[in-house]
Write a structure and sequence with these properties.
It is a single chain. By secondary structure, this protein is an alpha/beta fold. It has one domain: TIM Barrel (Alpha-Beta Barrel). Helix content is 41%, strand content 15%. It contains 12 helices and 10 strands. β2 and β3 form a beta hairpin. α5 runs parallel beside α7 and α7 packs parallel to α9. It is globular and about 45 Å long. The relative contact order is 0.15.
C-alpha cells in the first residue's frame, strides 16, 4: 500500500510555545495572501474534504497549530462564511469533556475557535507532562467523539533505535489507540477476539468500551511518525527510515482496524523537516505529509515547504 490519490497531502505546522496573538495575526495575514495567490494560479480550484478543512490546489491540505492563546485569531480573522485556505489545529486537549482540570482545555472549547485537528501524544508532552500511551488513546477517542481529527504522535528515542527496538516502541505506543478504536468500532476486539498481538497486551479503558459512536466510514485518523532523536536536533531521519516506519504503522492499523481504515489513514513524518528535505519524505512510501516544527515558524520557509509539497502532489 503506497500513496493513494484519495489521501490528500497533509502539511501541519506545530508552533509549540511560540508567537504571541499579534504575531499570529501578522503570520495569518501573510499566509492567507500567499495561499490565495497559489490557489488562483493553480490548475484546480480549492476544495474541502470535511468541515473547514481546506485543500490547496486539490493536492495539499494545510493546517496551523498555534498556542491556545492564539486560537481566537483564526475565528476573528476568518468568519465561518469565509472559504478557508488553511485549517486550524490545537497542540493538545484533555481526555474529559469538562471538570476540575486546572490548566487544561476541552474538545468543546477547541471547536468554539474553529479547530478541526488536534495533536495528541507529542513526544514533548509524553516527556514533560508524563502522558502515558493509555492517556493518548483516551484523548484520541475524545477528539473523534467530538468531530476533531486526532494527529497521534509516535516515535522512538535514540537509545531505542540503537537497540533495534523501533517497531516494538511504535507498536507499544499504538496498541492502546488501536485497541480502543477497535472496541469503539465494534470490531473483533469488541467480541473478545484479542489474540492478535496488535490488540492483546492491555485491556482498553471503560470509556472505549462504552463508545459505539464511531462510524468506520467517517473515521478520520492521522498518525505522525516523529522519531524523538530527530525532533529539533537537525538530525532528520532518512526518507527510507520514515518509509519503513510508516509501512509498519499502516500494516498495524490494517491488522487492528481493517484494510478500509488503513487505506484512508494519513501518515506524516516529523523531525527536523526543512524546505531542503521535504520533497524526499513526500516521495517516500506510505508518507502522506509532514508535521513541521521550527521550519513552520518562518513564513518564507513554511510557504516553500507547502509549495514543494504541492509540486510533489501534482506530480502524482
Amino acid at each position: 500500500m503506497t500513496f493513494a490519490p484519495e489521501r490528500k497531502r497533509l502539511m501541519v505546522a506545530n508552533w509549540k510555545m511560540n508567537k504571541t496573538l499579534a504575531e499570529t495575526r501578522h503570520y495569518f495575514r501573510e499566509l492567507l495572501a500567499a495561499l490565495r495567490a497559489v490557489s488562483q494560479t493553480a490548475s484546480q480550484p480549492m476544495a474541502t474534504t470535511h468541515d473547514a478543512a481546506p485543500v490547496l490546489s486539490g493536492a495539499v491540505e494545510v493546517v496551523i497549530c498555534p498556542p491556545f492563546t492564539a486560537l481566537a485569531a483564526y475565528r476573528e480573522m476568518f468568519p465561518e462564511d469565509v472559504p478557508y485556505l488553511f485549517a486550524l489545529g490545537a497542540q493538545n486537549m484533555h481526555m474529559r469533556p469538562s471538570g476540575a482540570f486546572t490548566g487544561e482545555i476541552s474538545a468543546a472549547m477547541l471547536l468554539e475557535h474553529g479547530v478541526t485537528y488536534v495533536i495528541i501524544g507529542h513526544s514533548e508532552r509524553r516527556q514533560y507532562a508524563a502522558e502515558s500511551d493509555e492517556a493518548v488513546a483516551e484523548k484520541s477517542l475524545q477528539a473523534l467523539k467530538n468531530g476533531l481529527v486526532p494527529i497521534v504522535c509516535i516515535g522512538e528515542t535514540a537509545d531505542e533505535r540503537a537497540a533495534g527496538e523501533t517497531e516494538d516502541v511504535l507498536l507499544r505506543q499504538l496498541r492502546p489507540v488501536l485497541q480502543a478504536l477497535a472496541l469503539a468500532l465494534n470490531e473483533k476486539a469488541a467480541s473478545g477476539e484479542t489474540s492478535d498481538r496488535f490488540l492483546s497486551a492491555t485491556p482498553a479503558s471503560n470509556e472505549a468500551k462504552q463508545g459505539r459512536w464511531l462510524d468506520p466510514d467517517q473515521l478520520e485518523l492521522v498518525i505522525a511518525y516523529e522519531p524523538v532523536w530527530a525532533i529539533g536536533t537537525g538530525q532528520a531521519a532518512t526518507p527510507d527510515d520514515a518509509a519503513q516506519a510508516a509501512t509498519f504503522v499502516r500494516k498495524a492499523v490494517e491488522k487492528a482496524l481493517g484494510a478500509r481504515t488503513a487505506s484512508r489513514l494519513r501518515i506524516l513524518y516529523g523531525g527536523s523537516v526543512t524546505p531542503d528535505n521535504i520533497s524526499g519524505y513526500l516521495e517516500a512510501l506510505n508518507i502522506d505529509g509532514a508535521l513541521v516544527g521550527g521550519a513552520s515558524l518562518d513564513i518564507a520557509s513554511w510557504l516553500t515547504i507547502i509549495e514543494r509539497a504541492r509540486r510533489v502532489g501534482d506530480a502524482r
